[in-house]
Every structure is written in structure tokens, then in C-alpha cells.
Amino acid sequence: MRKNIVAGNWKMNTTLQEGVKLATEVNEALKSRTPNCDVIIGVPFTHLASVKAVIGDNLGLSAENCADHEKGAYTGEVSAAMVASTGAKYVILGHSERRQYYGETSEILKVKVEMAFANGLTPIFCIGEVLEERENGTYFDVVKSQIEDALFGFSAEDFGKIVLAYEPVWAIGTGKTATADQAEEIHAFIRNTIAEKYGKEVAENTSILYGGSCKPSNAKELFAKPNVDGGLIGGAALDAESFMGIVDAF
Ligand code: 13P
Fold first, then answer.
1. Mutate to test the pocket of ligand 1, among 65, 95, 172 (most ligand atoms within 8 A of CB)
2. Could you confirm whether domain 5-247 is CATH 3.60.21.10?
């Protein structure tokens, strides 16, 4: 069966010291709980090793990106092997901010997913439409293409290792959440798209997270939907209490 997951994406926030403090707080808060979901924090590259040293095994650790090359003369890049060597087990790939500001295409993302697999990392792969595509009704096609172009070249076995995160760009950091019904509609469509390619079993076992202004006050309603298997949390993950409020929604 697929897992319920609440994952934080800290983005470009917190200094190393602030990040270690926040991770320590999340770790402490988890100790007094038995969450009904896996809990992961996605942190900047600079924080990975230090954060790993202060968290327990019940808190997963993720990078927010990795390079599309194995190693070599790529100044400033961080490889999947480097990420894995910190003890991180996950890597967020294809976030809309990476697509929008750093020109990440499906072609590039496909290679990044390969790099993640080659280094034993679980990709948390982000998809989602912009406002115009939501409003003109092309969002189904957009999301389908994002999945097809980057991920449908993988075997069913490999695809089964991917966590998907549907994040409508218009809901990210805007305070404007997709309604639970809007999320359910597209999540069901995504699962169906996977089923058409890889069969029902793979589709049923794929965790599909929702991201975009998810917070303690709306998480319960979103997570109650049958095809919403958790959340990828930005702003609300920067405070241990609000992040835990979302974890507790399960
Ligand atoms: P917010 O929760 O801040 O809207 O960000 C969502 C997101 O982009 C997580 O990856």
C-alpha cells in the first residue's frame, strides 16, 4: 500500500544554525508522537550533513535538488552521490521554482531522476500547472505531459520508487490553496494516468502529495481525500509547531 507522507520543503530559507535548530525542534516534536505518516524535511544542501546529525531515523531527510551530471567540472553543482553521502534518502526534483527560474526541462529532470536512482535516493517529483493553464482548462494535459515526458521512460519497478507531488503554481506561497475537491480531481487523474501506463497496482502504490499553501487549518480536509496521500509543505514547514500541525492532520 502507498504511504502517507508529510514533507517539508524549506527552499532557500534558514542559515545553517537556524536550520539545525528547526530540525532539532521537529525531531523533538516527533518523539512525543506516533504519526500516521512518514515525515520528511527537505533542506538546503549546506544543511544536510549537520541536520542528519541531529535527527533520528523516524525523520526522513531530503535535498531540494541535485545535479544532472554524475561528477566533474560543473562548478557549484551538487551531485546525487554527494547528497546520498550525507545520509539523505530523498531529493525533491522538478519543483516549479526550478522549472521557472532555472530552466529545468523534462529532459533535464529525467536525467536528474536517473542520478537519484543510481544513488539510492527517492525522488519527490513535482508537477503542476500555472494559473493560466488552470483557468483555460489545459491543466490536465499539462500535468500529464510533465509526468509522461520526464518519467514514463522508466520501468514500472523504477517508477514505483517515485513520490509525486502535485503543486499548482498558483497556490504556491500565495495563501490560495486548491480546494480539497480540486486537489482530489487532479490527483485522481494523475493516478489514472499512471494506471494507464503501468497498471493499477503501480498506480495504487504511488504516493501523490499535494503542495501549495497547505497549513494546519486546511490539511485535514485535503488529506481526507482518497487520492491525496499527504503534503509537500513550504512556508508552514519553517515553524516546527505548524509543521507538526500538518503531520497531526493524519
Ligand atoms: P507553500 O506551502 O509555501 O505554498 O509552498 C509549497 C511548495 O512549493 C512546497 O514545495
1. 172
2. no
